[in-house]
Amino acid sequence: MMRDVGGAAPTIRDVARAAGVSPMTVSRVINESAHVRPETRKQVEAAIAALGYVPNNLARGLTRQKTSTLGLIVPDFTDPFFSLILRGAEDVARRAGYGVILCNTAGDVEREDAYLEDMVAHRAAGLLIAPVGDRSRANLRRLVPHRVPFVLIDRAIPGIESDLVQGDSIDGARQLVAHLIGLGHRRIAHVTESQDVSTARDRLRGYHEALDAAGIPFDPELVVEGKAATIEGGYDATTALLAANAAPTAIFTVNNLAAVGCIRAIRERGLTVPDDVAVVCFDDIELAAMLHPFLTVMAQPAETFGTIAAQLLIDRIAGRATERRRRVVLPADLIVRVSCGAEGGIQSNGG
Amino acid sequence: MMRDVGGAAPTIRDVARAAGVSPMTVSRVINESAHVRPETRKQVEAAIAALGYVPNNLARGLTRQKTSTLGLIVPDFTDPFFSLILRGAEDVARRAGYGVILCNTAGDVEREDAYLEDMVAHRAAGLLIAPVGDRSRANLRRLVPHRVPFVLIDRAIPGIESDLVQGDSIDGARQLVAHLIGLGHRRIAHVTESQDVSTARDRLRGYHEALDAAGIPFDPELVVEGKAATIEGGYDATTALLAANAAPTAIFTVNNLAAVGCIRAIRERGLTVPDDVAVVCFDDIELAAMLHPFLTVMAQPAETFGTIAAQLLIDRIAGRATERRRRVVLPADLIVRVSCGAEGGIQSNGG
DNA sequence: CTGTTAGCGCTTTCAT
DNA sequence: ATGAAAGCGCTAACAG
Prior knowledge:
Two copies of one chain form a homodimer.
Chain A: H1 12-19, H2 23-30, H3 38-51, H4 57-64, E1 69-74, H5 80-95, E2 99-104, H6 109-121, E3 126-129, H7 137-143, E4 150-153, E5 163-167, H8 169-182, E6 188-192, H9 198-214, E7 223-225, H10 231-243, E8 250-253, H11 256-268, E9 278-282, H12 286-291, E10 296-299, H13 302-317, E11 327-330, E12 333-335
Parallel strand pairs in A: 1-2, 1-3, 3-4, 4-5, 5-11, 6-7, 6-8, 8-9, 9-10
Antiparallel strand pairs in A: 10-12
Helix pairs in contact in A: 1-2, 1-3, 5-13, 8-9, 10-11
The first copy, chain A, binds a DNA duplex through helix 2 and helix 4.
């Protein structure tokens, strides 16, 4: 097994020379074209192995005028919800022969914009984007002239007519709050994030719907908005809520991270979950639940968000997408544990 | 704000034509070369904006014979330990002007090999790798002729003389087991993974050291090896351990995910943690701990693993690394919670 | 089945 | 301070 140890990386010409054929034949071999005689193919393959040749993707992309790279852009990949999405998307992408570039916007629109431009510069074949919020609209619009297909994940943006994979936030929130009402709660607070984010708007709407259905009057004091759907955001909002003597008996938080911050704030005030305040939220934290089944949640099939979104994107890149716009809404699943104050730990489902 | 809406993406020539200069001048502008007259620069910048021009990274990389892309390769990015590493590395890389490509090997050596070849094909400037294990050696060796600098993260591989960032697994394990011994345990089991992984070997060694120091004889029955350091691996190994009537009063698992599986297995047998069996492990699960401070762990500064490793890699790429090989060992931190059976929840540190 | 030619978009080198 | 020429490694289009 000889190896090129000396100079620069071997090119397709080096392989051609070593195999006694033209670069074109080598190209046909590495691209699995049928029109190569088996013997010739073997010679070429031998030369490739001998030289340790690896095709240069940059040159390939430049010539073909397209790459097989997908960009995945999310606000935070340490959030278990997003990391599952990434895993699902990466898996599907790989199987379809696409590579994947990951970007973490940290919820910052400008950083998002920089990443988007980066993806354009890399000539990514398509993008999977969990946008920062409606403020991402301008960023996404800038994408249009570059003809980069993209699929939105988790968050819709009014005015952006792209493919979209999201959960049913309205109904999920409605169920969650209805569950609390069924448990006897009437002063139910909602810890949310900026209404710039579609999921936050939808969940607030579901909250309203559940209240209305039960004939419970809406109290604006019970809705507080954190800076973001993060631990800190949930903590700050809950602290403000409790300091204002809004006296909720239950809190519905916009997502899992906010719930963690919320619970911390409740406990710091010397109160107990669920005895003093019940807590429910969107999105599960599976690892935590396995250690201690505590949080009652509306679990979304995060990994499936990723696989479906990747599939939609790949179809569109391949021109297999006929419709102008496709929207997939995935149902969430109510998992009742103890933080809501329900007895036992029944695991019902909302299929 | 005119935009190119029609044809293909504008090239540097289009910009040059629009600005009435040569492509070379445009190149100088986008690369921030000093030798451009301010007026000329402005014209060019105006043309760039008008056309919505974004430089083609493929062409750039091809010409320059190098890219500013780093590859990050880990076994699983839904594991909180690795997702923190990724966040840290991504952050540093971005700041230094590098893009980042993420690969998830799922603990599969062949998949790892495929990714590595992919990174070579992309002409990545360097690689950050948390390898599958010693079996990755052949994969990494194949990298050498391609001259791709790489930094190993978390796991060392005998015979691979690369830069390396790791935790002090031996001492961390020793402390963890010593803690259990201090609590009165003498039948302490160790749930580990394949000894192909350096961290698993080191932690087993630390386990031995602690036992020896306390004069507790080693019982091979108390060491069980799961398929991987995953929830399932920990579950299976613990199930086997308990079925064998090894009767441990405490278990030290090789990492956090294995601990989750371990605890599940203990509970399924009708036993309680920590009353019947105490459990401690390497690596924290911060989200779970915030909800319910339960698991006693040896916490590693995962994000710092990522930032330091990225820094080492970038230095080496830039030729700023003088030494042949640099090894950084980061200390871990003992966090005592309740799963070990210690009273209270004292948070000591092993700085 | 195999080879030749041309060019993808950019930057390096060398002029001016 | 600016430009012209050449070429990075590959493949599309067209021979043969």
